[in-house]
Task: structure prediction
Amino acid sequence: MKVAFTFNQKKETDSGLPDEQAEFDAPETLEAIRKAIESHGHSVIMIEADDDAFPKLRSSKPDMVFNIAEGLRGESRESQIPLFCELLGLPYTGSGPLTLAITLDKSRTKEILSYHGIPTPKFQVFKNPAEPLKKGMGFPLIVKPLSEGSSKGITNDCLVRNQKELRKKLAKMTRDYRQPVIAEEFLDGREFTVAIIGNGNPEVLPIVEVCFDKVPGEINKFDSYEMKWIYDDPKSGMHIKDMVKCPARISRKLESEIRKVCTEAYKALGCRDFCRMDVRLDSKGVPNILEVNALPGLIPDPEENSRFPKSAYAAGMTYNQIIARVLEEGMKRNGLNAKPKKGRK
Result:
């Protein structure tokens, strides 16, 4: 089968924002995915999700598209490649344009979760830094860019404890990221990441916990950009060993509750094939959905603790099997033969 692999690759930038390309993938990840697809007997066409992606998809006429592309620009950029695929009649992996657009917008995600009775922290969207805080919203709050992933913009100082800190952060964030900002109630319970794979009755993989007990005291205890890319990065020089644990050491009751709420969110948002969700416990121990990442990172190196692969590794899967499973889920959903050619591993 001819598979088009659509992606965005990290490149040198002088924008001044260290996290500008946090959502994009390193060449090593792209190469690992390409080899994994080929190992199951398929040929691969590499297509960067840039201005030339549409004519390349049209001319190459692939049998299937394996999509992890974040898109280049705009509030619905993750939907760009799926929209091209649908226009061209090409089957592809992952969620559809509507789900990808909604899950990139944190407020729309939370509105749908709330409608379905799925716990998520209270929130408010700020289109400008001077808007008053709504009644019922109390400090501390977490302040985030409305439409970003990979903890982009979510730095240690995003936890604000008073009006002065809130206004300062809102002003900086709206200036730097040029989009509305969401502030949500900070939950002080344990934090988890949940990987889900499949359709119909999707499979919840072993739950990941992000542990903050060894983090320096002056650092706020949530899964920020610094946590993911400094304290949990073996190359940073400040790496904290075993900060990310999988399977999480939790009771069967709590595990069941987390699995249930994440499965409900997956179905309510129309996620397909694979997804990763961030969860935090509130003061009563109730799991709340913080964010939904319908295009989760797939960094292959186990030392880097990429959350989705870490969960899959704990389930006994190899990296090649992870990629094969996602591809097969997309193929089955599109009525294609998902079995590799005989004699291939």
User: Anything to note?
Assistant: The first strand starts at residue 2 and ends at 7. DSSP finds ten helices and 13 strands in the chain.
